[in-house]
Amino acid sequence: METENAYLFVYGTLLLPGNEFGQYLNQHCQLISSGRLKGRLYDIGRYPGAIADENSRTYVYGTIFLMNDITGVLTVLDDYEGIGPADLPPHEYKRVLHEVETCNGMVTCWVYLYALPVNQYPQIANGNYVEYLSNKSA
């Protein structure tokens, strides 16, 4: 596991109040900034899935964290995202390094991107999962 990059981009359930792994992030990471990556966001059911696409005219919006213990945090999140050592393929997500745009320029971050077909899932047009859920429940 590459442990040099300490930045993590989060766009989904980890940003929701009361999510225990989101609370874990807040205890083991420092909030850096909001960010966005070119791509599309889908409603997979109980969580979203992001597909990166440099040619997209839409963005996926989220938050960038600086991890205090890179290996520890990524190990916990790999398990949460279903790509830990005990999880058999095919995996829904893959963890990759990707450029994320901020108001201060680009930051290379770890991000969990959706790895399976999305044809049957609705796209979240505004690319913001938290806002989407808020509007969906209103």
Give structural notes.
The protein has 138 residues and is an alpha+beta fold. It has a single domain (12-133), classed as Gamma-glutamyl cyclotransferase-like (Hypothetical upf0131 protein ytfp, Roll), CATH 3.10.490. The chain has 3 helices and 6 strands. It has helices at residues 20-28, 70-80, 129-137, and strands at residues 7-10, 29-43, 48-52, 59-67, 93-102, 105-114. The longest helix is centred in the middle third of the chain and has 11 residues, at 70-80. The model has no long low-confidence stretch (mean pLDDT 95). Residues 8-130 form the Gamma-glutamylcyclotransferase AIG2-like domain. It holds the Pfam family GGACT. It comes from Mucilaginibacter oryzae.
